[in-house]
Amino acid sequence: MAASYREIASTKPFRFIVGSNAIEFFVHPAVIVQHSKPLANLMHGDMREAREGQAHIEEVDENTFARFLEFCYTKDYPAAEHSIVLDAASIEQEKQPSKSAEVNIIPALIDVPPAAEDEYMDDAGPALAFDDNWASCSSRKKATKASYKGGAHLQRETPPALSTKRAAAWKGFQNMTWDSHFNTSKTPADQARPNKEACEDYTDVFLSHAKLYVFADTYAIEPLRTLSLQKLHRTLSMFTLFGGREGDIAELLQYTYQNTAEHEAKMDKLRQLVIKYVSCNVEKLRSNETFKETLAAENSSSVDLIEMLLPRLD
């Protein structure tokens, strides 16, 4: 049962000291009690924290805790912002665009029959997009180039056909759902934003959802646990895995297996979501060092990945 505004406003704030930087948060206990029994016991039980009216939570960073509090008050939370990363190669390409980049970009601008375009995109999905050559942030400036060269019409390159099993695997990922036991009629605080260029680093975006899932799992906040899965799934479904962005997914995979528990009977839900996405994109991820380190570590990631890949084998 949700706390009334009067009940919330009339309670003395509880002091949380969060993260390695010891950031202070003052929260109305009535707001938290309705979401988490472990935290309710911490604030109102027989422990020292309840007597002192304060608690230290060092294993959680302040940004994750702030998102949790926003969820407590609004039933929603915003993801972290993506960052822009320009490496030396990107800067050099900005100064001297390669001839090959121009050749690859121009065909992508040629009109094609809508039916053919829709059919390909429906099968592929954002994460399986063929157009890896949009990897440079400077490439967008080439988009104004003419669609004709030397008077000859350039035909758009035909994307390679996805195998039926690979397309089915991606469809299976897109169709993943989780039961929600709270009201989702409100407009989310943030709409998932698809990445557009390879310079857009989505590591923090992914991890903001994953960290909130781990927090919710630790403190038995099922609605938040479900919401974080839904938001991460939506973001991954819209994410284009450009060349150079493999690390974003590899970091998410590593965090997931380092911070979730092994279950004999059933795979952790965050692990299931992330490893299923990885299995759809393993060809692109296989050379990433963080990805290889995670699979070689003492966890079940390699076994889980093999199980996810089996349906794709002939």
UniProtKB/TrEMBL annotation:
Coiled coil: none annotated. The lineage of its organism: Eukaryota, Fungi, Dikarya, Ascomycota, Pezizomycotina. Residues 12-81 form the BTB domain. PANTHER family: BTB DOMAIN-CONTAINING PROTEIN-RELATED (PTHR47843). InterPro entries: BTB/POZ_dom, SKP1/BTB/POZ_sf. This is BTB domain-containing protein. It comes from Cercospora berteroae. It comes from the Eukaryota. PROSITE patterns: BTB. Pfam families: BTB.
